[in-house]
Structures are given as structure tokens and as C-alpha cells.
Design goal:
This protein is α/β, with parallel strands linked by helices and 264 residues long. The chain contains 7 helices and 11 strands. Strand 7, helix 4 and strand 8 form a beta-alpha-beta unit. The longest helix has 20 residues. The radius of gyration is 18 Å and the shape is globular.
Length: 264
């Protein structure tokens, strides 16, 4: 392992890239997040020729002779990373660290938030969107929305199905009350918006991310153990979101109870 850090910081934003070109494409987004969140930057790579280009980017780095899954696992514990940023390229060869399916595989066990960005995507996050539904929602999903509101001055849009089912509507209302409790305590405004009429039993994320004006989308990645037999015949929602909206960065949070969050 080759590693260099300019100075000791409490927490970091990680730039994940296996080529100088990918790192340079991600740098504007990472620098903006670093400045807004007041975290330093650390670049991670598993590229075999990393030592020929990592130092030229002028940020702390860790060039690791390991697979990406192991690198991702070490980020929060060994390097105090709270957010990883990686570049997605649907045209990349299968197995490449930038192929969408491989990204989701590499970050499958991630205990931190990871932002998936495609070339040409928005780098300013004026409006951040997420969904609420009838199911149990992740507290971390709402916390990350609050971070963007507080530190990036983002407007928050919360979408939901216009449920007609009484039980689903009651559970949604419970989630909205929880949202209001968190955001009101932080003096954060938000818009609660019903989605256009559609299948209220479907995942709301694919419809919500396509709404006008969304600059960044927050999505909870379901535990793969929750996928049923019919799900095996369709790509996971996270993969569909990446392919559906190349212009919108997506902040993914894995559905687990031990996610690391920022100390702010």
C-alpha cells in the first residue's frame, strides 16, 4: 500500500478512481462537497499504475493493492471516510470499477454513503430529492438530506405516492411525522410532493428521480436478501436509477443499521 496524507483531519470525502481521467472528471464534484461539508479529500485507487499519476492531483491518496470491496470496507474504519464519490460509465467494460453493475457490487457492503456520478452530470445540488413510502424509512436517508440542506444550501423535495390504500396512507403519515420531527428540530424547510398517479405498490424512486428540477437524488439500497423470486428477472432498482438518469448524481445508502454518519 502506498498512502500519503497532507494533514490529520477528523473525516474525509473519498474520491474513488482507477485512472487520472476519471479522477479529474470527479474532482469538481468532490472539491465542492469537501468545501461545503468541511471535510478533506482523499483519493482511493487500485490501479496498478497509480504511482505514475496520483501525486499529480495534489490531494491525499491511498493507492492500494487490493480489490475495491476490501477498500470500501476499510474506508470508514481505517481512513475516517464518511462519503465516497465514484464515476459511473455505462459503456465501460464489465468488471471495470466504473461499470454501474460493478460499482453496486463493490459498494454492496459499504457502511458509508456513496455518490455515483456520470460524466456531464450536475455538480451543483440546488434541489435534492428523496422519497417516503409506506415502509420503514432509514433515519440516515433523512439525515443526509439534512446535511445537503444545512451545508450545501440545497432545497429538499420529498416525493411520495398518493396512496388510496388506508393502511399504506397511515404508515406514510407516520413517516412524514418523523420527517417533520427531524427537519423542524434543525429549522429545515422542505416540499412534500405527491407523485403523478401510478402504481402505488411500486417503488417510488424511479418515478421520483424523473421529476423536473432534481439535481441530486438520495436512494436507499434494499438488502439483497429481501429480493423475492420475481425480482430475479429484473435489474435492481439502484441499477435502473443509474441507467435511467445519467445527468443526476445519486447518493446511495445501503439498508443496514450500522451506517457511519458525519460528526456534525
Amino acid at each position: 500500500m502506498a498512502a500519503q496524507q497532507k494533514q490529520k483531519k477528523d473525516q474525509f470525502v473519498a474520491l474513488c478512481a482507477d485512472s487520472r481521467g476519471d479522477a479529474e472528471r470527479l474532482m469538481p464534484v468532490v472539491k465542492q462537497l469537501s468545501a461545503s461539508l468541511k471535510k478533506d479529500i482523499i483519493l482511493f485507487t487500485t490501479s496498478p499504475d497509480a504511482e505514475s499519476w496520483v501525486e499529480s492531483l495534489g490531494v491525499s491518496f491511498a493507492a492500494l493493492k487490493s480489490d475495491w470491496a476490501a477498500v470500501v470496507e476499510a474506508m470508514p474504519t481505517a481512513f475516517n471516510v464518511v462519503l465516497a464519490v465514484t464515476l459511473a460509465n455505462p459503456d465501460a467494460p464489465k468488471g471495470s470499477s466504473s461499470h454501474p453493475r460493478q460499482i453496486l457490487k463493490n459498494f454492496r457492503q459499504a457502511k458509508i454513503a456513496y455518490l455515483v456520478v456520470q460524466a456531464g452530470a450536475a455538480s451543483e445540488f440546488k434541489t435534492v430529492a428523496l422519497t417516503l413510502n409506506h415502509q420503514r424509512e432509514s433515519k440516515e436517508k433523512l439525515l443526509w438530506a439534512s446535511y445537503f440542506a444545512r451545508f450545501c444550501q440545497s432545497d429538499i423535495a420529498v416525493y411520495h405516492h398518493p396512496y388510496t390504500d388506508h393502511d399504506f396512507r397511515r404508515r406514510l403519515d407516520n413517516n412524514v411525522r418523523y420527517l417533520e420531527k427531524i427537519f423542524s428540530s434543525l429549522n429545515i424547510a422542505y416540499q412534500l410532493l405527491p407523485l403523478p398517479e401510478g402504481n402505488q405498490f411500486a417503488d417510488p424512486d424511479p418515478k421520483a428521480i424523473a421529476q423536473p428540477g432534481v439535481d441530486l437524488f438520495i436512494s436507499l439500497v434494499a438488502d439483497e436478501r429481501d429480493r423475492d423470486f420475481l425480482d430475479l428477472f429484473s435489474p435492481p432498482t439502484a441499477l435502473r436509477l443509474i441507467k435511467k438518469t445519467p445527468a443526476i448524481p445519486i447518493l446511495f445508502l445501503n439498508q443496514r443499521d450500522d451506517l457511519y454518519i458525519m460528526c456534525d
